[in-house]
């Protein structure tokens, strides 16, 4: 029995114009035949490449079937009839296929040696009785046959027939995308990268030329090489290397800033790159740049710089606006010789503020605190060392100092005399004040302090709050020896280290010890004819010991403590 076996062939839908395409590749059939089917999803065109013996008829059936099912009625097929490719369909085993309207366009029919190669195309849909190709199909089935020799047409194929089932379509990678070297500012992401390719292409970015994981769109870019492919209809191209440069602009530097009373953004200071544009904000991110005339308030501001097209991150800057109050000073009188420090000023507000004095209402240099006042108008402001407030005027009237007291500059005294015994002449009603000199300082002394030989005492007189210059009087002791009026008085040891013993023929009521300035430094109640007094805590030096008897008589002794 003679029979013709046709190859049934199944096709996927749309094939891509760029590389939106897939192919079975060359499928080796028996009897010296091969077949390859390509699908282009872009123009929905199928391309068949069929080879067979150049001296006889051969046929290919395609579709979706199993072994033994290839000759079913209606199965689409094509065959070469010795001249061209014929479009037809099966009408049963042993019957000649029915010829259809030929929807295949032969683009090539060549012979090399004994092998004929035919290339033909048609639309996916074809025509009546044609198999409809679908790009979504994953496999295709082939059945094939050829005549046993050149004298046969559709019979006597013998063993020259067979099947090639479940031939897989593999996508054909599209052409590589196009992408140039690209430059960005810091903060750019993969989403900012640009590439061009086929219509509807999806671009895939990687860090490696092959393998690896596709980068997410929000991956932050760094300077280096990236790789891009394009995917069309689930087919991915090879990767193209793209050089990426990320320009980084450092944040400007700025320290905390303090302004007095009022300031604007124009007063703010920051250091950036040469030629950079500096912008200030009141928010750490986003927002609108503040204009130069915007008034500042105490708080945090943020500064960024732009170099070219790139902008840095922002630096936070603490800003303090110090509003200084105005001090008050009533018109007042001061004594001659006083400096501006003597002016009575009331500071306003809370905090550490101090007065600053001028002799002009505006401008000028501050007066030194020891600047000697004259009758006139002065101006005072308050400052915290950085900021200074408005000045207030104060009228100063300078009062003259009273005359210095008069008296002998050297005066004699007897042991036991006090400062009150020194003789001076003063204005009636004046307040007399006495001093002694300790190092370079005047120390207040009491009129009851005992005079000491060779010590200089200073007297002033004060009238209407003003104190005169000092009158210096040096005390000269008439009798430098010890003077005892207490009967049987004795004191020992002298010099002394720790304890002195005092005795007398009559009861002693008390003992007082003075330094050489006449200042009392120790007092003891005795009420006995003998007493021991510890001086161990006294510093080494000379002291005056004065004993007083119950009858009022006294004895004064100069001792040495070592």
From TrEMBL:
Pfam families: Ig_7, Por_Secre_tail
Keyword Signal: yes
Presence of keyword Transmembrane: no
Keywords: Signal
Domain Secretion system C-terminal sorting residues, every copy: 491-560
Signal peptide interval: 1-19
Domain named Ig-like: residues: 174-247, 251-321
Name of the protein in its database record: T9SS type A sorting domain-containing protein
């Amino acid at each position: 029995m003679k029979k013709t076996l046709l190859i049934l062939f199944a096709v996927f839908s749309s094939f891509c114009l760029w590389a939106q395409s897939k192919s079975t590749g060359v499928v080796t059939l028996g009897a010296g035949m091969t077949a390859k089917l390509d699908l282009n999803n872009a123009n929905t065109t199928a391309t068949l490449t069929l080879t067979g013996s150049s001296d006889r008829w051969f046929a290919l059936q395609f579709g979706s079937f199993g072994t033994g099912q290839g000759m079913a009625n209606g199965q689409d097929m094509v065959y070469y009839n010795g001249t061209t490719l014929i479009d037809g369909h099966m009408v049963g085993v042993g019957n000649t296929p029915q010829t259809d309207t030929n929807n295949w366009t032969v683009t090539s029919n060549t012979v090399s040696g004994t092998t004929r190669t035919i290339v033909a195309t048609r639309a996916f849909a074809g025509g009546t009785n044609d198999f409809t190709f679908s790009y979504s199909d994953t496999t295709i089935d082939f059945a094939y046959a050829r005549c046993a020799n050149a004298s046969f047409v559709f019979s006597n194929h013998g063993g020259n027939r067979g099947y090639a089932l479940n031939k897989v379509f593999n996508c054909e990678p599209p052409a590589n995308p196009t992408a140039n070297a690209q430059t960005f500012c810091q903060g750019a992401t993969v989403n900012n990268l640009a590439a061009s390719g086929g219509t509807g292409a999806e671009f895939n970015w990687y860090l490696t030329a092959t393998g690896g994981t596709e980068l997410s769109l929000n991956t932050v870019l760094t300077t280096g090489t990236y790789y891009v492919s394009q995917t069309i209809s689930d087919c991915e191209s090879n990767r193209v290397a793209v050089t990426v440069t990320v320009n980084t602009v450092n944040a400007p530097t700025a320290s905390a800033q303090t302004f007095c009373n009022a300031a604007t953004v124009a007063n703010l200071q920051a250091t950036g790159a040469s030629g950079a544009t500096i912008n200030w904000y009141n928010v750490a991110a986003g927002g609108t740049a503040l204009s130069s005339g915007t008034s500042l308030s105490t708080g945090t501001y943020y500064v960024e710089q732009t170099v070219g097209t790139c902008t840095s991150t922002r630096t936070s800057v603490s800003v303090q606006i110090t509003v200084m109050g105005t001090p008050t000073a009533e018109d007042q009188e001061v004594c001659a010789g006083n400096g501006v420090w003597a002016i009575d000023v009331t500071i306003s507000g809370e905090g550490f503020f101090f007065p600053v004095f001028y002799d002009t209402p505006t401008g000028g240099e501050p007066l030194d605190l020891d600047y000697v006042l004259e009758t006139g108008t002065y101006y005072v402001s308050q400052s915290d060392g950085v900021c200074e407030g408005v000045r207030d005027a104060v009228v100063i009237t300078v009062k003259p100092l009273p005359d210095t007291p008069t008296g002998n500059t050297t005066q004699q005294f007897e042991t036991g005399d006090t400062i009150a015994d020194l003789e001076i002449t003063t204005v009636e009603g004046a307040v007399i004040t006495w001093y002694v000199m300790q190092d370079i300082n005047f120390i207040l002394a009491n009129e009851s302090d005992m005079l000491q030989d060779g010590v200089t005492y200073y007297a002033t007189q004060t009238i209407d709050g003003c104190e005169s210059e000092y009158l210096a009087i040096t005390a000269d002791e008439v009798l430098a020896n010890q003077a005892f009026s207490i009967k049987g008085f004795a004191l020992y040891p002298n010099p002394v280290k720790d304890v002195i013993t005092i005795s007398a023929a009559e009861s002693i009521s008390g003992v007082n010890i003075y330094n050489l300035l006449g200042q009392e430094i120790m007092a003891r109640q005795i009420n006995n004819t003998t007493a021991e007094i510890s001086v161990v805590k006294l510093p080494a030096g000379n002291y005056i010991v004065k004993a007083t008897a119950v009858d009022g008589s006294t004895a004064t002794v100069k001792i040495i403590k070592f």
